[in-house]
Amino acid sequence: MLKAGDTAPEFPGFPENRPVLLAFFKISCPTCQFTFPYLQRMADKVPIVGISQDDSESTDGFRQAFGLTFPILLDPPRYLVSNSYALSHVPSLFLVEPDRRISLAADGFSRRVLEEIGQRFGAVPFKGGERVPEFKPG
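Structure (tokenized):
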């Protein structure tokens, strides 16, 4: 998996000239299903682009089931984009800066990582009193 300090590979639809959180996922992944509602809570302040490893119809169902409003791109067959980021697990998150430098890379669910992203953009991923685990592997 690429890490902080690496250069993010470009792909069709890659957002440019602004920081962006790339969130790779597969709809059948329980940890992705757990993580994405928290990402959605931050989507009004954090520029997020989801990258689905599934087909269009399945991805649309996932989007509707979890009320996702941020853009979601489809990884072409054979996971060309996922492979360019050297993914071994989903969900995988990459915070990419305008110069395409990766400033944060994480896989699985991490409370600390989502709080760090939230602090950077002034977003709140967790509600007061909400019981959220520290980590869930992908």
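The beta strands are 20-25, 48-52, 72-74, 92-96, 102-107, 109-110, 135-136. The chain has a mean pLDDT of 97.
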